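Backbone-to-sequence.
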């Protein structure tokens, strides 16, 4: 008997028929003798719908703590509906099942509304239910802070809920069921020739997620790494009654071992991110401390900076660019125009929201030279201009015009032979 956590995403929970299917699959695992904890997301489109309602009443948006608190209050209801429906569907399958919201468990988080971090999970109640033979259904995406405010974990956060629960309970495995049958070389919606990876190393998965691949929320991968949670991504669209042993081996395993086979692929995957924007300060004095004078206030305003570039100086002046999340773009521009720009005597502040970041990822890059130049050549052959470059041991990222994103991803996928069958 094992303790297994299943996570089902929005599409997998998208209708009562699909919820019934989820229940049948979970029932199969429970009847095979496993203790089951299930973490569903809101039904597909529901979180967007709920946040859209809030937007109607507060068109200007903003990020005041008061507004953010209410957004969490609203968004968390999507998952509350899901857990109730799934528990009913499980009961209809003849199982004993009980549902909990995040605060009922409780899943304790910090108070950063709309992007809260899980601090601890009290598993006493869940364990008691499991011992009594119940399937426990826990709402993904949500928690509660010290003051009893409902919080949410950021978009895609149900992945993190599931892995954190698996970590807290020392589950034998966490299975992330979704609308694709595993982790692909890139998003199959953009490149139909993308191939499923049988395994991906934890480090590569971490990079892919942090570089924008939405298949797993980055924090879920971080949790898996920190607590060594065995993690697998697989399809919820296979027939629910397929052989359980076959199902347990399907999809993509996030592996903590770097075996020889994985070393063979220099580049394992391509990630892209449309959520960033670029800001530039033109004509700032090129002197010690300037980067700190610019980025210090940006950090103080709680704006995350990603790629940074500073040009060589001419006449003692230089241009300084960096990227931020698009949600922070307006605040970043305002800060630069009103405060930072005048303080560092910048000639001008420029902004560009129509950029994207495309990245190649692979642990094989550690031991191979010329990978980045191959990337740049593939992009130049398509006439794509590179605006910024950032590299680390196992990835190279470029910032380009958003309108070339799909072209760039396809060209790179081909250039690195990712559409060819490689050793699994
Ligand atoms: P869920 O609702 O189950 O959490 P998501 O929409 O969050 O599902 O994530 C699954 C989607 O991630 C897929 O439908 C696919 O379009 C996208 N995706 C992005 N990158 C990849 C990748 N490398 N491999 C597989 N799917 C990817
Ligand atoms: N329902 C949330 C979202 O749409 C959380 C999730 O699906 O993981 O972002
Ligand atoms: Mg998701």
């Amino acid at each position: 008997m094992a303790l297994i956590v299943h996570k089902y995403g929005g599409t997998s929970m998208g209708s009562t028929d699909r919820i019934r299917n989820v229940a049948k699959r979970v029932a199969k695992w429970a009847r095979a003798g496993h203790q089951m904890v299930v973490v569903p997301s809101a039904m597909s489109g529901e979180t967007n719908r709920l946040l859209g309602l809030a937007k109607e009443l507060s068109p200007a948006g903003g990020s005041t703590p008061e507004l953010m608190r209410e957004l969490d209050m609203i968004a968390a209801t999507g998952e509350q509906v899901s857990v109730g429906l799934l528990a009913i569907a499980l009961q209809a399958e003849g199982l004993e099942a009980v549902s909990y919201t995040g605060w009922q468990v409780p899943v304790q988080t910090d108070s950063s509304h709309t992007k809260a971090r899980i601090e601890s999970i009290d598993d006493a109640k869940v364990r008691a239910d499991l011992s009594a033979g119940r399937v426990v259904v826990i709402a993904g995406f949500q928690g509660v802070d010290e003051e009893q405010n409902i919080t949410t974990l950021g978009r895609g956060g149900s992945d993190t809920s599931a892995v954190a629960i698996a970590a807290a309970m020392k589950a034998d495995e966490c299975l992330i069921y979704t609308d694709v049958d595993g982790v692909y070389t890139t998003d199959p919606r953009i490149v139909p020739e993308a191939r499923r990876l049988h395994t991906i190393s934890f480090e590569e998965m971490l990079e892919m997620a942090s570089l924008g691949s939405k298949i797993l929320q980055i924090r879920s991968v971080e949790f898996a790494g920190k607590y060594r949670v065995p993690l697998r991504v697989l399809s919820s669209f296979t027939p629910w009654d397929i052989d359980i042993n076959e199902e347990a081996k399907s999809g993509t395993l996030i592996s903590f071992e770097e075996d020889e086979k994985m070393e063979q692929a220099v580049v394992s995957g391509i990630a892209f991110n449309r959520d960033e924007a670029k800001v530039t300060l033109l004509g700032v004095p090129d002197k010690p401390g300037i980067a700190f004078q610019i980025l210090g206030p940006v950090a103080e305003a709680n704006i995350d900076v990603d790629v940074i570039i500073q040009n060589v100086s001419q006449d003692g002046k230089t241009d300084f660019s960096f990227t931020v999340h698009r949600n922070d773009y307006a605040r970043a521009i305002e800060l630069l125009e009103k405060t930072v720009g005048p303080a560092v005597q910048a000639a001008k502040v420029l902004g560009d929201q129509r950029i994207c970041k495309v990245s190649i990822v692979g642990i094989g890059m550690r031991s191979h030279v010329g990978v980045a130049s191959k990337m740049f050549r593939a992009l130049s052959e398509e006439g794509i201009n590179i605006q910024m470059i950032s590299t680390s041991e196992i990835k190279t990222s470029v910032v380009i015009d958003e309108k070339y994103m799909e072209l760039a991803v396809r060209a790179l996928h081909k250039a690195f032979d990712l559409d060819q069958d490689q050793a699994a």
